[in-house]
Amino acid sequence: MTSTGHPDDVIPLIVTSCTQELFGCLADDHVTEENPYKLLKKDDILQDIKTRAAVSDFTPVKKIVLDYPEEELLLVYDRDYTYGNNFYLVLTPEAKSRLLNPPQPEQPEENEVKESCQPKPWISLGSEQEIDNESVKETRPKLRYKFSRVLRKFGEPVCLSDHNPARAKNSYVECAPYQDSRSSIKQMERDCGTQAVLRVQSSTQTQRIFKRNIFTQYVPRELSDEDKENVLQSESLKDFCNSVTPRVLQALQQEELNNVFSDDCADLRTEAEDSEWSAKTSVGLTLYQILRDQKDTKDKKISCINWHPTIYGVLAVALTEKKDEQSDQSTTSPGRPSLIRFHCLSDPCDPCSDAQLLLESPDDISAFEFCPSDPNLIAGGCVNGQVVLWDISAHVTHLQEQQPGSEKASVNTGTLDDQKKTPVVRCCALSALESRHNAPISDIHWLPPTFEVSRTGLAVENRLNISVQVVSCSSDGFLMFWDVRVPKQSSQSAADRKPQSTAHGAPNTFKHLDRTWKPLFGVSFRRMDSGGEYTPLKFSLVHDTCGGDNTGPATVESPVGNGSKTELIPDYSRLRAPSANTLQTLEDVNIKLCMGTENGEIVFTDWKMEKDDSGQLRSTKPLHSFNIHQLCVNAVQRSPFFQNIILTIGGYNFAIWREGMMYAPIVLSPRSEELYTAGCWSPTQPATIFTGREDGSIEAWNLEEKTSKPSYVHSQATEAKVTFIKPWPASPKQHFLAVGDDVGTVSILQIPKALYRFSGNEILSVGKYFEREENRLKTFFSREQEEAADPRKKTEPEKPAKSNEDNEEESMKEYRDHLMMEENILKAQP
Amino acid sequence: MEDYNSGEEVVFNADEASASVKECIEGVIGGSDYNQGKVNQWTASVVEHSLTNLVKQGRPFKYIVNCTIMQKSGAGLHTANSCYWDTATDGSCTVRWENRTMYCVVSVFAVAVAL
Hints:
Strand content of chain A: 15-25%
Shape of chain A: elongated
Helix content of chain A: 10-25%
Largest interface: A-B, 37 and 49 residues
Strand order of the largest sheet of chain B: 2-6-5
Structural class of chain A: alpha+beta
Number of strands of chain A: 40
Distance between the termini of chain B: 19 Å
Number of helices of chain B: 2
Oligomer: heterodimer
């Protein structure tokens, strides 16, 4: 136990036990660890030192005790021998008092806190330097001067002028900028601003092409609360619920087991078709064949194409010379006869684009049509205004033999010398030169077999139910009606008179008409707005192929041989036109027709003729005319599914009309960049339209999907401008589209399934679509008319303010009446 | 306070003024490099000393002293001034001083005390 350093004011001391007893500081008895202090009287200690001398424990500290100023000394029991011995003596009274009275930690006096904070002295943090720097102090006393002048100098005028910095040498200072390579300036502060903006990509510009922003907001009408309460509490309701609930529950349960309203067969079919269609295999029009005869079709354009109605795969093509717009000459170049060429669709692997049959005519044919009752008869209109008839019954077998897949007949028929030589059929009848159109015939149609037209333009009954009359129109403004039967007036002598004038080799079917054929009558249509007449290019009569016979457009009659129908088709050569008086007039026949003119107008009119002032029969004014297409109308066609829906194509757009709607087309396509040059309805899909464009592309529009752009575009179907399109459902699996163009090529395209697939719902939905559009137009126009009527009232200058108030009152009254009526109606229900 | 009595016309002497201003500038920022903390102080001193020197000449003029100190960093500085006064008696001078790190431009305008 080394003695560690002890403080100066204590001295370790050994106090033996007898000394302890003597002074009453027995270790662990009088003095303990907790209470180690013992005050000893100084006198006692001195006494002890005297009595015991060297034995006394206090001898070494004798001097200290003697010098101790106070009476009592402190002896501290040092149990742990921290200072080396078991006791230590405190030498100084200060230490003693300190040990005995250890300074207590000061209690925080509550009084101090409650006093308000004293203002603390200001501690400088450096800001006073800045203030000193900025403040202006006078560093020296101000100098004062006094100036004086001679009195006479006072009041002299002063002359002030500009001091020009440019001329004085010191006024302009320039420190030129330079490239500082060692610039180490750190920009401490920079002013910049930021703003967060959402990345916006969409625009809110309303598209103007056929998308209309329609906004409707409504709130359902409800019964008031007390009414609802009454109803809920009523007895009858409770009874009803109780009685009906079990049955309803039973029905619901049954329905889960078996849906009685489902038609399995229909579901099966549509599912299969949808899945096929959704696979989207080859949606495009695929090229099947190209028919082109180089030597004969040079510089000619296709003017008309028609598929043979009964023979599979045969189509007839008419070509016309392309001529300049300015020249009026319509002469054909010699050596190039004008022909209608019949082609057969052949195997695409072994194409044969030769014509199988040629129909000769005196001039280029611009339009022709097969007779709907007898497909062997063809009526055509020439460029020189004449109407031509052909009979190809002699060559029908030849055509049938040329069908793809059939064996070539080894026996040649009739007039053919060599099988390879293409037979040529001369025309059987030509209209009289003096009664022809003055301009190229632009369209020709057979009248439907349901009625015929008398000489005065009335529709009369058609006893034989076959088409016997032909209507032709041309750009000279006339619509002519021709009858192919032997005219009543002409006697047998006339027919006999010119037997030799029939061309050699031509059939004798229409011998009676040749060269003397005159139209029944001709009509021209006066313009509605200005003088002059309309120049019709295309027209459309009441539909002639729709009727009770067709069970559905998808079904195609199997091509029949020539023989099986002969008993139905009478011999046209024997037909005689009955006297007009014997025929009964049909009142309810729709004799309206829709015309498209050269200027792009669509004219709805009928050809009823009435006597005007001079006693002559003239046509009535047209019912309606609209100028929708600014350029020539290329096609006017009725929908094969809806009798009164008409498609017109011309200029840069096409339009769909409903006959009878007097305001506007129910659908108008957006204006496109390319000219539309041809178009037609799809024969199997009620909402599909095929259109041909000037750049040779074909578009397929689906009106149900969208009317803003075509649903399919087949660009460059042909090299030149498309001039004619004709679709044909050849078989249930194969549909063709014949496209004729400006350089004399006919392209046969195969229509993909998606574009010819027919489903029964479509007719209904398309019909509804047209109705919707029609209603929209009706409401729009009726509103316009009302507004047109109203301003006339409001332009009255007198009492304008009163009329406003009156109107308001009236409308409020009406509204109140309406509310009352509503309530009555609603409450009237039991 | 000094009195000055003279019947002559007094004209501002630009050369003398520019010389004295130059001395002032030298005295204040002569050998120093640009120090952003001291620039305020420098400009104040330059202006003050220049003004004192000018006034001590005892001429009957009102003085306007303008001081600009710019750090040399490759930027350009162009100043110009123009006055409308009596060109016969009034005048101004501009002193341009530079060292390695800064430019100093001081303009002094003196307008005669018209009595």
